[in-house]
Each structure stands twice: as structure tokens, then as C-alpha cells.
Specification:
This protein has two domains: about 5-80 and about 150-235, P-loop containing nucleotide triphosphate hydrolases (Rossmann fold, 3-Layer(aba) Sandwich); about 90-150, no CATH class. It is globular, with a radius of gyration of 18 Å. It has a six-stranded mixed beta sheet with strand order 6-7-8-3-9-10, with helices on both faces. The protein has ten helices and ten strands. The chain has helices spanning about 45-50, 75-80, 95-100, 110-120, 120-125, 135-150, 165-180, 195, 215-220, 225-230; strands at about 5-15, 20-30, 35, 55-65, 65-70, 80-85, 155, 185-190, 200-205, 210-215. It has about 240 residues and is α/β, with parallel strands linked by helices. The model is unreliable at about 235-244 (pLDDT under 50). The relative contact order is 0.17. Bound molecules: adenosine-5'-triphosphate. This is ABC transporter ATP-binding protein.
Length: about 240
């Protein structure tokens, strides 16, 4: 078996003495894509924040590109290649779009031109301040900023959350291009399974901090009973494309 890009082994972590994640193991290969699913409060965000070292680890190991990151501090994990786009869309509100991007550029594979090619809307808005952008544009900028740090794996926490349907479609196409055209390895947390399962190769479902499904995304699409069992009504798609 080829060496995994990201390998998480029996990770247990939480806040103080409270253990939220219990024995979580998975691997992500080069160019892989993983949908991280689960109902509210099941530990999806905690898994992402544990990968970047923001929670208390109770046990387990994290390796990225052959390097053990388990004891590495958060800022060094970013430099090592874990790109993190939090739900809060962490951008500089009083810098322009372009300044937001160039302030943190590392001179890696993701140049300004390449980022603008992926996000034409950011190119159009490059002189606007961060706080003059719509919610969807801020989300794009948050993702673009993470790319400028040249990640090996991009962690996206509910990127479509609270956005209007048209911008969700645009963002969806951009994420699809990152995965399929650019071969970027991505872990995507999402409440609405049906929206992202067609995008990702693999899926993992968390239930009270434990992995209850780990396998093909396709299987979850083909067997709605599985999704219904772990995600309940939220997984049921309505005729208008939204979920209940
Ligand atoms: N900063 C924190 N301090 C203490 N407990 C927390 C903290 N953040 C989350 N938790 C708890 O950890 C558990 C998992 O929360 P988490 O946010 O990881 O779930 P989630 O699956 O991402 O949910 P959601 O979809 O609502 O974001 C919950 O019981 C939550 O209350």
C-alpha cells in the first residue's frame, strides 16, 4: 500500500478532561478527498481543530507526508502543510483582497495569478477591503488565503454555511476544480451530505466522536438507508435541492 499523505491513528482529543473524539483513525492519500459528516455536535469541527493542534490530545498520532506532527505546535503544522479554513472565515477586514493574499504568500505553487484563475470573482474585487465583501466572497478569500500558504491538505469547515444558493453553486464548482483539476487533498465538513458526497471520493461519519462509517462516498449515495441511519432527516434531499 502506498504511503498515506495524512495518517491519523487512534486519535482521542477534546477540551480539558472532556474527551470528544475517541479512537479516530483514517488516512487520506495524495489527491484524496474526504467528506466529514455527522449530526450537530458529533465532533466534526473538533476533529479538524485537533488535526491542527487546537485541542487537548488524549492519545493517538498524526502524520503528514511521512512527518510525525503529533507534538508539533499549531503554527508549525500550517507550515508543514495543513491548511485550515475555519467556519468563521478568518480574513483581515481592513486590508484589500489582494493585500489579504500577498500578506501571507509563501512563494509556493499557489501564486496570485493561479489563485485569481481559480477565483475570478476575487480578481474583480481585488481592490476592495475584506469588510466590503459579501459572505460568499469572504469565504472565497478565506480559502484563497489558505491556498497561498501552499497546503498539502486543505481542511474546510462548512464552507457553504449561511450562503445564498447561487454562491453555493459557484463555490461548489471551485472546490470541485481544486480537487479534480488541481489534485489538492481536501477534508470537507458539511451538514448537507447530498451536496458534497458527489464531490468527494471518501466519506467518514462521526457519531459522538467515534467513526461509524469510513468508506466510499458513492456507497452512501447508493444506499440512502445508511445516511438516514446516521444523519437522520438532515440527509434527506428535498425536491428543490436543499435538505430538511
Ligand atoms: N471549545 C469547546 N470547549 C468545550 N467543549 C466544546 C468546545 N467546542 C466544542 N465542544 C463540544 O464538543 C462536542 C463536539 O463539538 P463539535 O463542534 O466538534 O461538533 P460538530 O460535529 O462540528 O458540530 P456542528 O455541526 O454543530 O459544528 C460538542 O459536545 C461540543 O459541545
Amino acid at each position: 500500500m502506498s504511503e498515506a499523505l495524512l495518517e491519523v491513528e487512534k486519535l482521542s482529543a477534546g477540551y480539558g478532561d472532556a474527551r470528544v473524539l475517541d479512537d479516530v483513525s483514517f488516512r487520506l492519500d495524495q489527491g484524496g478527498s474526504l467528506a466529514l459528516l455527522g449530526r450537530n455536535g458529533m465532533g466534526k469541527t473538533t476533529l479538524l481543530t485537533s488535526l491542527i493542534g487546537l485541542t487537548r490530545r488524549h492519545g493517538g498520532r498524526i502524520r503528514l507526508a511521512g512527518r510525525d506532527l503529533t507534538a508539533v505546535p499549531t503554527h508549525r503544522r500550517a507550515l508543514a502543510g495543513l491548511g485550515w479554513v475555519p467556519q468563521e472565515r478568518d480574513i483581515f477586514p481592513s486590508l484589500t483582497v489582494e493585500e489579504n493574499l500577498t500578506a501571507i504568500a509563501t512563494g509556493g505553487a499557489w501564486t496570485l495569478d493561479r489563485v485569481y484563475d481559480l477565483f475570478p470573482r476575487l480578481m474583480e474585487r481585488r481592490s476592495n477591503m475584506g469588510n466590503q465583501l459579501s459572505g460568499g466572497e469572504q469565504q472565497m478569500l478565506a480559502i484563497a488565503r489558505a491556498l497561498m500558504l501552499d497546503p498539502k491538505v486543505l481542511l474546510l469547515d462548512e464552507p457553504m454555511e449561511g450562503l445564498a444558493p447561487l454562491i453555493v453553486q459557484e463555490l461548489f464548482r471551485i472546490i470541485q476544480r481544486m480537487i479534480e483539476r488541481d489534485g489538492l487533498a481536501v477534508i470537507l465538513v458539511e451538514q448537507h451530505a447530498h451536496q458534497i458526497l458527489p464531490l468527494t471520493r471518501d466519506a467518514m461519519i462521526l457519531e459522538r466522536g467515534r467513526v461509524v462509517y469510513s468508506g466510499d462516498s458513492r456507497r452512501l449515495i447508493d444506499e440512502p438507508a445508511l445516511l438516514d441511519r446516521w444523519l437522520g432527516v438532515g440527509a434527506v434531499e428535498l425536491d428543490d435541492g436543499t435538505s430538511a
